Amino acid sequence: MKRSHLLFLLIVPVISSRAENFILNGHLISHIEYRMDQSIVPAPGTRLLVLSYVEPPDFDSPSYRQSIDQFHLSFSTDPARIEKVRDNRGNSVITATWIGPPDQIRATVSFLAANRTRLQPLVTSARFPPKRLPADVVVYLQPTSQVPSDDAAIIRRAKALTKNAATEFDAVQKILTWIVDYIRYELRPDAYGAAYALETGLGNCQNYSHLTAALMRAVGIPVRIVNGITLKEAYHARTGKGILTMRMAQGRHSWIEVYFPDLGWIPFDPQQMQLFVSNRFIRIEVGLDNNETVADGCVRWRQSSGYTGMPVFHESIRASFSTDEVRLTADRQNYGPRKILFTPAVEAEFSALFFREASEAPAVFTAEVPGGVDLPMPVMFGNLDFPEDIDFLETRSPGESPADSLRMLTRNFLVETAEYVTSGGQQYAQTFLVDRPVMIHQTGLALHKFGGHGQLWVELLRDDGTGRPGEAVAVTQLKPLSQISAAAGYRWEDFDFDTPVRLEPGRYWLVLAYTGSPVVNWFFSYGKPVGPSDGTRYKVLFDEDWDRILNYEFNYRIIGSTGM
Fold first, then answer.
1. Does 404 map to a domain?
2. Same domain for 313 and 214?
3. Which region, left, alpha or beta, applies to residue 253 given φ > 0 means left and ψ of -120 to 50 means alpha?
4. 191 and 258 in one domain?
5. Stretch 545-557: mean pLDDT, rounded?
6. Residue 450 and residue 520: Cα distance in Å, rounded?
7. Same domain? 470 vs 505
């Protein structure tokens, strides 16, 4: 009697010799009309409700400048009192207090932001480690529970990365290059500190910021944590391979600022950006770590004895770009991380980092088959990790009970990273690699239906040999939109092939196609957790080629069998 053995194969890329360090040159200049609307329904028995906000400051650095005008905060019901103070990190904090609050409070924050990102060569001769730091800068060398720069493992890693660095920029780029390749983005990590990120190699924006800050502080480089908002407006840079499109989710975000004695505080987003952030960032609050920078968007309350429960909180952000001038070029360098990192040109003494040569073909990890029998084995691979069935509007950080007995909700860093992929005139493609013959039965995409009507299907294409979608291999069955749930959140929507499709080793593409007018989003992961950096593409009406590259990777899965 034959026995079947279930085996799942995870196909992941190995380190490539191809660096993905892009030097950006040019500028982004925008005027933004910003509005945030909040709705707060107090918990049962609430006697005291306190909402807090931080007024965004003006900020100027060699690469990024923010100017705020016409800041306005309003409420549907006037609070009993409003107070405005400047905290010990320089944040302008506004608190509004209600005694016996109404059943619902609506709050609106609005302002105009004139933001500029200037990507011209930066000149720094700051030595490493930096010397004679101002007193107000030295504080940002302190360890905290989330940024344990005094931890032995953190110190060892930081010293190993920077042992040959002579300049501060050399040390900074060595640490950040390692961070970009080491951490894989995880939307809902189990913890948000540097220790978790170092141990697991996983984390969201808070983990990226905390681990980068911990490593830099451990070797004497001051770093402060920045909290603010990122906007979803895409921007483009011309490269030798076509057009590189950069986009983030809209919502709360955490990044860092690094102090250079000859440049001042310079913003970084450790997920992808060095020595700058784009003008799609709204800078709001700074501190030692994210436990400290909790004022903006914080909800606190006290309930009468015997009552439990939490307030219901909704927050929505709208941003309109009244002007938006983008003039950027991107040049790939032959050094840097395997994952994408963007930076302006820097005139400084530093040593370029190179990675060992390796094939771009994926590594396949298999389990041993008992008895050595060569049987067909199930296979599932792809960019598999995303938060299924999460309602992003409802999710909020858990309530806490600090010493002052006020319970607290802090802001939510859980953002919806998704692309509207059924917009008229645009089509999206995601690549995947196979290193052995495989029979494909089904492919799945992480989708959410908002409405509309029509049908969806997936086209399977070969690569044309230049890293772009080529000729068709097969097409899945049509899926009527009515068969896709409209419930909140994203989930796998699988598309079946009429008959299994045999694929030889190589590179292939999944292209989402549709008829009618469906309104569907496809979830994506920041960076390129699985595939090559140019493996997510799109084209617009009248494009003859797939020369538009996206800086993220869609969540997809391939289901089939191997060993046949």
1. no
2. no
3. beta
4. yes
5. 95
6. 6
7. yes
Asked whether residue 188 falls in the same domain as residue 234, the answer is yes
* Structural domains counted in the chain: 3
Whole-model pTM above 0.85?
A: yes
Q: Which domain holds residue 465?
A: 374-395+413-562
For the chain, the residue count is 564
CB burial of residue 134 (10 Å; 0-12, 13-18, 19+): exposed
Residues 245 and 306 in one domain: no
Q: What is the CATH number of the domain that holds 149?
A: 3.10.620.30
- How big, in percent rounded to 5, are the helix, strand and coil portions of the chain? 10, 50, 40
Average pLDDT, rounded, for the chain: 89
* Euclidean distance between CA atoms 234 and 247, whole angstroms: 5
> Peptide bond before 362: cis, by omega within 30 degrees of 0?
no
CA–CA separation, 195 vs 151, rounded Å? Answer: 9
* Predicted pLDDT at 69: 98
SS3 assignment, position 540: strand
> pLDDT tens digit string along 148-198?
999 999 999 999 999 999 999 999 999 999 999 999 888 889 999 999 999
pLDDT per residue as tens digits for the range 19-74:
678 899 999 999 999 999 999 999 999 999 999 999 999 999 999 999 999 999 99
Strand (E) or helix (H) holding 172: helix 168-182
From 355, 52, 16, 315, select the one nearest 178 (Cα to Cα): 355
